[in-house]
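EI: anyone free to look at a 408-residue chain?
SC: sure, send it
EI:
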Amino acid sequence: MTKRRYFFTVLILGSLTALGPFSIDMYLPGFPAIAKSLHTTTAQVSLSLSSFFIGLAAGQLLYGPLLDKYGRKKPLYFGLVLYMVASVGCFLSTSIEMLIWVRLIQAIGACAAGVAAMAMVRDIFPLDQNAKIFALLILILGASPMLAPTIGGYVTEAWGWHEIFVILGLMALAILLAVIFFLPESYKPDPDYSLKPAPIINSFLSVIKEPQFYTYAFTGAFAFAGLFVYVSASPIVFMEVFKVSAKMYGWIFAILSVGFIGSSQVNNLLLKKFKSEQIVFVALTVQVIVSVLFLVGSLYQWYGLYSTIALIFVMLCCVGTVSPNASALSLAPFEKNAGTASALLGALQLGLGSLTTLGIGIFDSHSSIPMSAIMASTAFMGLLILVIGRKRIVHKVEASGSAGMVGH
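SC: here you go
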């Protein structure tokens, strides 16, 4: 592969990976404007984020078999076209109910991009280059939550929230054209691959029965839920409680993203001295302590803008440390069905995350209490599952040094 072909292939795969995060983060600064336009509350607008997470979770399980049955590009074409149609639906939404439903459809389309990109890395590049390519994709993925809200804030103030979905739709169109003309089909369709429910369900059941998988998958999912709660509630906390502008919110979101992304990279250094299970336990314990302090302070209104930012920053650092190690430990026992385990892990993380964000819409409170309460609850549940589940693991498989490269 020439250097030019290599560069464009990685760029296209990175763009596919970033479509989902951009779809989540770019419209966050527009929450108050959407609420005003659709005659609802910001908390109700956050339900459109919950529906997006539900669509991503469902898509994790949907596209895996389709990509193996029909090849990589046909399901990818379907997903990107579906995403563009849903983006038009978001632009035309006249009620919060309509926006919630079309965001669900948009997520199912977006999920095809991320799942296909991961599969195509293994197809296109030699095995000894996969880690390097995944690292490049993670860097692109990490830049998304720093760029998207900032761009969204400027777009919202300059043109309005509708135009955010125009930009997202045009992004998907550009990616689709790049896939059609510059990305090769990397996997031949397999007509013998069965899409019958029974063998697929049995494969998932064999994975979830493994004690090491369910212990660290659920531990990581509950810890990771703190990130979903933060993303869903942050427009309320910063733009309604602390009255920051859409532009300023974009910058705050970008700064806080450094905590999550930076800690996941620091994790590589920690792995040189500590085992993954040690890092998970310590980081999750700190996450519980800080989230409880955040909850108590929210109840008694102790914290201002800067102290709130500092506490959330520490919690996101904990999430960024727990997540890759818990993911690596949950996948470590599997060799033959690692793809199934990975899909199930992603579905658990996204599914649980989407359920926790529903609480933000249900509470509908103009304070940081719902955010801090759910964050504290999920962190505590993660630690409880870890303490109980570790006792049931008879033969633990080490995650070795791979934890730094595994994450969602």
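EI: The mean pLDDT is 83.
SC: 👍
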